[in-house]
Design goal:
This protein is α+β, with helices and mostly antiparallel strands. It has two domains: 115 residues, D-amino Acid Aminotransferase, Chain A, domain 1, CATH 3.30.470.10; 158 residues, D-amino Acid Aminotransferase, subunit A, domain 2 (D-amino Acid Aminotransferase, Chain A, domain 2). The protein has eight helices and 16 strands. The strands form two sheets. Strands 7, 8, 9, 10, 11, 12, 13, 14 and 15 form a nine-stranded mixed β-sheet that branches. A seven-stranded antiparallel β-sheet has the order 2-1-6-5-3-4-16. A hairpin with a 2-residue loop joins strand 1 and strand 2. The longest helix has 16 residues. It is globular, with a radius of gyration of 19 Å. It starts with a strand and ends with a strand. The structure holds 3-[O-phosphonopyridoxyl]--amino-benzoic acid. The site of 3-[O-phosphonopyridoxyl]--amino-benzoic acid has 15 residues, from helix 6 and strand 13.
């Protein structure tokens, strides 16, 4: 396996960064999780735009242009001969001393690209739908660590994930401190009822999959709404599903013990998943192996 590390494609064994890297010491950096389908990197430009926004807020200069970053992702996929895969792109602040002050870092961020195979949720979950719960750990406040930042500090989500798995569930719904639905630990949340597809508007990552689903829904003439969402609305939705790069679109049939709709993946959910699969066949940056 070849890993992209600061401009070079190196063997996995040699892909190493220092223990003084502030990504390791403090979670100081940003990342993206990207997918390729049959030699097309899905919405690569959008992922790179989001990464650069995260880095802009963190005041980390990757010392590469967006075009160079796109080329580096494609080069990594080609070097590993991966047609269908998962790409993890990480930019950390780089080496510094043991203090958290970024000014004492050396201004050389580490840029890492790993291209690997993707492991999906089991296929039965897509057919039967998932059962999930809301958890006590609240979503980071936007003025603390904005959920729109895809930062290397994922502990907020990891704590919520632990709460879900401790209770025997695969995914957790996280609420904002005022109780409104925010998102899951690695997915956005959607509900459908009375012809309207809704997703929370704030307190969440602006998911690339989420945006793609909103676009598809508009094309299907489904009304879409981004606003506040309570647990009551979620429990009484006709359909519910989660979206994310890893999960794509996965139906949810029970939340906190409440059956959603008739307890089976809904027709709109299934149609959107179908259309999403079609989209992955024509969207994105094409490359030849
Ligand atoms: N919310 C959060 C908190 C996420 O981390 C999403 C929503 C969905 O966003 P996208 O852009 O993927 O539609 C994410 C994405 C992993 C993994 O390894 C996590 C994500 C994506 C890919 C892999 O657990 N999270």
């Amino acid at each position: 396996m070849k890993i992209y590390l600061n401009g070079k494609l190196v063997d996995k064994e040699n892909a190493k960064v220092s223990v003084f890297d502030h990504g390791f010491l403090y979670g100081d950096g940003g990342f993206e999780g990207i997918r390729s389908y049959d030699s097309r990197v899905f919405r690569l430009k959008e992922h790179i735009d989001r990464l650069f926004e995260t880095l802009h807020t963190l005041m980390i200069d990757p010392r590469m242009t967006k075009k160079e970053m796109i080329d580096a992702v494609v080069a990594t996929l080609k070097a590993n001969k991966i047609k269908d895969g998962y790409i993890r792109l990480v930019v950390s602040r780089g080496d510094g001393d043991l203090g958290l002050d970024p000014r004492k870092c050396f201004g050389k961020p580490n840029v890492i690209i790993i291209a690997d195979k993707i492991v999906l949720y089991p296929v039965q979950l897509y057919q039967k739908g998932m059962e999930i719960i809301t958890v006590p750990t609240v979503k980071n406040h936007p003025n603390a660590l904005n959920p729109q930042l895809k930062s290397l500090n994922y502990l907020n989500n990891i704590l919520a994930k632990m709460e879900a798995s401790h209770c025997g569930y695969n995914e957790a719904i996280m609420l904002e401190e005022n109780g409104y639905i925010a998102e899951c630990t690695g997915d956005n949340v959607f509900i459908y009822k009375n012809g309207v597809l809704s997703t929370p508007h704030l307190g969440r990552l602006k998911g690339i999959t989420c945006e793609a689903i909103l676009e598809l829904a508009r094309k299907m003439k489904i009304k879409v709404s981004e606003g506040y969402m309570t647990r009551h609305e979620l429990y009484n939705a006709k359909e519910c599903f989660l979206t994310g790069t890893a999960a794509e679109l996965i139906p949810v049939v029970k939340v906190d013990g409440r059956l959603i709709g008739d307890g089976r993946p809904g027709a709109v959910t299934r149609k959107l998943l179908d259309n999403f699969h079609q989209l992955t066949k024509k969207d994105g940056v094409k490359y030849d192996l």
